[in-house]
Specification:
This protein is of the alpha/beta class and 136 residues long. The chain has two helices and eight strands; from the N terminus they run ααββββββββ. The longest helix is centred in the first third of the chain and has 25 residues. The protein binds copper (II) ion.
């Protein structure tokens, strides 16, 4: 992992904590209960591309997961693509109705973009598969 990714992960950690605290405040529930919501997804994880947005625009998955980006724009809708800021992964153009997948076999944190839509940006965090669920 390069230094840039390490720095990015540090930034994410702080942001994730802030986000969790916000949820705790909103829900008025305990930290322990909220921490469980940060459990990463695994296996085949789908991210939708629609209306010039990635949904969700932040995802946590475990090492070994395959992320599938699905272009849900229809007909003459937009072509999208997926490219990592650091070049770790990049897709060919994905037309409406198309999809592209990438298997994450290392942990890390990536910001990625769609080259067709300058505001189409998202982040993905890949954590070790054996990491125990927070709060358990
Ligand atoms: Cu796009």
């Amino acid at each position: 992992m390069n230094r840039r990714n390490q720095l990015a992960r540090l930034g994410l950690s702080a942001a994730a904590v802030v986000a969790m605290m916000a949820v705790v405040t909103a829900a008025g529930s305990s930290l322990d209960a909220q921490a469980s919501e940060a459990v990463p997804r695994h296996g085949a994880v789908e991210i939708v591309m629609h209306d010039s947005r990635f949904r969700p625009d932040f995802e946590i998955v475990t090492v070994g997961s395959t992320v599938i980006w699905v272009n849900q724009d229809e007909g003459d809708g937009s072509t999208h693509d997926v490219y990592a800021e650091d070049g770790w992964f990049s897709s060919p153009p994905i037309p409406p109705g198309g999809q592209w997948s990438f298997a994450f076999d290392v942990e890390g944190f990536w910001t990625y973009y769609c080259s067709y839509h300058e505001n189409m940006i998202a982040q993905i965090m890949v954590v070790p598969a054996d990491e125990p669920a927070a709060g358990s």
